[in-house]
Design goal:
heterodimer; A: mainly alpha; Helix Hairpins; 3 helices; B: mainly alpha; two-stranded antiparallel ribbon; 73% helix
Chain lengths: 101, 631
């Protein structure tokens, strides 16, 4: 059995769904970060697979950019997380209700 | 000449505005004096115009300004003084001047003295607009203006409480004011429809142009216009079946009754018919209908006056009856006779009312004639004036009423409408009876008022000097009949009596005078020696029918007012509240509820925001997929 594009896309979809489920269900900010990383990587897989399938490199190029941006985002995001933890002593989302309407 | 016209027209307005400045403040004698003077100025200007017209019979026109100029429509604030207008202006301003001066006495102790003069002068201004306008729309403005002033003045003592019909047949001043206004509104619709029809078919509203182009109208259309205009006249002049408001309007102060509800405003309907004489001359069948209705009202109102005990109501019914005479004359084509009776009636009826005002003051606002009697001793001068006015009203030679009323009877005879003649003749007898029943009940007989602890007092001497012009005119006005006829017929159609009538004139005069005198004698024998009440008569069906005004007010209340109120209640409770209001409220409530529910989404929790975000994402994706799949 050879790996076809479908397999890659299914894997990407499953990962994306896992990421979404994490975003919706998790209450810990750190876990939310992990979930978004999973979603980003799901997108990367889809990009790379489709790029290889149609023989166009720009898709893989996009994937590289996303990896770079995700890395810098994590760096900034983790810094903010530490500040939030220092200020509130928790990372539980339900505790942050400053914007309640 | 134009300046005189404007002075006559606007002096009352200035007077009204001047008095209005003091409306909120304490009684100020200056207001009464200035108002009386300004109305007097208006009278002098009107009389000068009248004399000028007598020498040079050419109508004076004045165009104040454009009013409505839209497309083909061109209505101006135009005024004209011709013979009819000049007579009306002079009568109106003369009576108004006397009433203004008299009001200084009558309203002496009223806390709204200034306000009263403001309304009264505003009325004179509206009346002047009504009679001086040279087009139907200006007439309508004046028509509504006098209606509003009448409402304000009938309801002048608006703070009085409502009572039941048994205690006070008019219920209360504010009730009477509303009744008068609403009844007039109903009739005004007729007038308005008539004006619309004139404009629609002739494209103009100026009297001159309208009456010059009457031949363009079909006969049916003219009949329709004639009837519509007459419906308006019926309301203002309180003709059956819109008559009930006039008697109730007696709730207003007595000077108001004298000026508005006897001498001037109620004659506006007669003025309209006289003014539209070219129209009514071409449709004699409508004219005949007017004459029949007028005749009916004459005897109908006179019959109610026979038994009434209320001093002012008797005079009100007599006004109604005399208006019937005027309509009878106008309907039969004798327009100048109607105008002549209108002027004569204005003088003696205003005098009668103002005399009644003196009596009311003396009796501390008691109106029941059965509680008066023997007032001659205390109030000799009032007795003289009211006696004179009643003689004039009864049509006794040589007073004004004799000439005018007799001419109307001659006209009815001359037209071979013997039925009308007979009824009017009978009414002349009834008029004499009830007028003198009133005079004798009030001034002669036993002094019944003593039982009620009333100490009557005569009015000031200057009041009688102020009333003198009316008294003099009530006596001598009739002798100007020939001059009046020449003057008025320059504008109005000449009315010729046939040879046959000429031969009969003396017989007619004798017959009419005979029934008037016998009416007076009957009243004298019944009432002059004191009041003897006969319970058998007072409980008889006819007596109760008459004293309850044929039960017409009660009929109107049960057959019109109450069902209408019920209908209004249904419209309010069922339609307005449950359909219209409910729809509007429903929309508002849905939006409010929706906002309340969706507000929950804004809970400030990042997690739930993310859920919404995801839900949105999924939704958009689904839509995208679905749209691709459908394609």
């Amino acid at each position: 059995m050879t790996l076809t594009l479908t397999h890659y896309l299914v894997l990407s979809a499953i990962l994306f769904a896992i990421g979404i489920a994490g975003v919706v269900r998790r209450k810990n900010l750190l876990m939310l970060f992990f979930a978004t990383e999973i979603m980003l990587n799901a997108a990367n897989i889809a990009f790379a697979a489709i790029s290889a399938y149609i023989g166009d490199l720009s898709g893989q190029l996009f994937a590289l950019f996303i990896i770079a941006i995700a890395a810098s985002e994590v760096a900034v995001g983790l810094g903010l997380l530490i500040l939030i933890y220092k200020k509130y002593g928790t990372l539980d989302l339900d505790k942050f209700t400053v914007m309640k309407g | 000449m134009e300046n005189l016209l404007y002075i006559a027209l606007f002096a009352p307005l200035v007077s009204s505005l001047f008095a209005a400045l003091f409306a909120q403040s304490q009684k100020n004698l200056l207001v009464g004096i200035v108002a009386s003077l300004l109305i007097g100025v208006s009278f002098v200007a009107s009389a000068t115009l009248l004399l000028e017209l007598a020498q040079n019979p050419k109508a004076i026109h004045a165009n104040l300004m454009d009013w409505i100029v839209v497309g083909d429509m061109d209505v101006r604030f135009g005024f004209t003084v011709d013979q009819v207008t000049a007579v009306m202006m002079t009568v109106v301003t003369l009576v108004s001047t006397v009433v203004h001066i008299y009001s200084n006495y009558y309203m002496e102790h009223d806390r709204s003295y200034n306000r009263f003069f403001s309304y009264l002068s505003a009325f004179v201004f509206s009346m002047m607009v009504l009679v001086m306008s040279d087009n139907f729309l200006g007439l309508f403005i004046g028509w509504e203006g006098v209606g509003v002033c009448s409402w304000l003045l009938v309801g002048f003592w608006y703070h009085k409480k409502d009572e039941t019909r048994d205690v006070n047949p008019s219920i209360s001043p504010s009730w009477a004011a509303n009744e008068a206004f609403i009844m007039n509104r109903i009739a005004d619709l007729g007038l308005l429809v008539g004006i619309f029809m004139i404009y629609w078919n002739l494209g103009t509203l100026r009297y001159e142009e309208v009456f010059a182009h009457l031949d363009q109208l079909s006969h049916g259309l003219m009949v329709a216009i004639g009837i519509a205009l007459f419906i308006g006249a019926m309301g203002k002049s309180a003709q059956f079946p819109l008559h009930t408001w006039l008697a109730d309007a007696m709730e207003g102060p007595t000077p108001v009754s004298a000026l508005i509800h006897a001498a001037t405003m109620v004659t506006a309907g007669v003025y309209l018919v006289i003014r539209a004489n070219p129209l009514y001359s071409t449709i004699p069948e409508v004219g005949y209908g007017i004459a029949v209705l007028g005749t009916f009202v004459a005897i109908f109102a006179a019959s109610m006056a026979l038994v009434n005990r209320d001093l002012k109501r008797v005079i009100a019914y007599s006004t109604l009856s005399q208006l019937g005479y005027m309509f009878a004359a106008a309907g039969l084509g004798a327009y100048w006779v109607a105008l002549f009776h209108l002027a004569a009636h204005a003088f003696f009826k205003a005098l009668l009312f103002l005399g009644a005002g003196n009596v009311m003051h003396a009796m501390h606002d008691e109106l029941d004639m059965f509680k008066m009697g023997g007032l001659k001793k205390e109030m000799g001068k009032t007795f003289l004036y009211m006696g004179l006015a009643s003689l004039a009203l009864s049509g006794i030679y040589p007073l004004a009423g004799f000439f005018s009323k007799d001419t109307i009877l001659e006209v009815a005879f001359n037209e071979h409408t013997y039925g009308i003649w007979f009824v009017l003749w009978l009414t002349a007898g009834m008029t004499a009876f009830y007028s003198f029943r009133q005079v004798f009940l009030v001034f002669l007989g036993d002094e019944r008022y003593k039982k009620y602890g009333i100490h009557p007092h005569e009015a000031y001497n200057w009041v009688f000097i102020a009333l003198a012009p009316l008294a003099i005119l009530a006596v001598i006005f009739g002798f100007w009949k020939e001059e009046f006829m020449h003057f008025a017929t320059q504008m109005l159609p000449v009315y010729e009596m046939s040879e046959h009538t000429h031969h009969m004139v003396w017989i007619l005069i004798i017959v009419t005078t005979a029934i008037a005198v016998s009416g007076i004698l009957l009243a004298y024998f019944k009432y002059a020696k004191g009041l003897k009440r006969d319970p058998k008569v007072e409980n008889s069906f006819a007596y109760r029918l008459l004293s309850n005004q044929y039960y017409i007010p009660i009929l109107y209340e049960n057959a019109v007012s109450k069902p209408y109120a019920d209908l209004s209640n249904i419209a309010w409770q069922a339609i307005d509240m449950k359909v219209v209001d409910a729809t509007v409220d429903g929309i508002a409530k849905t939006i409010e509820k929706g906002g309340d529910v969706s507000r929950q989404a804004q809970d400030g929790n990042l997690s739930s925001y993310l859920k919404w975000l995801t839900a949105g994402l999924i939704l958009v994706t689904l839509i995208a997929v679905a749209s691709v799949a459908i394609k």
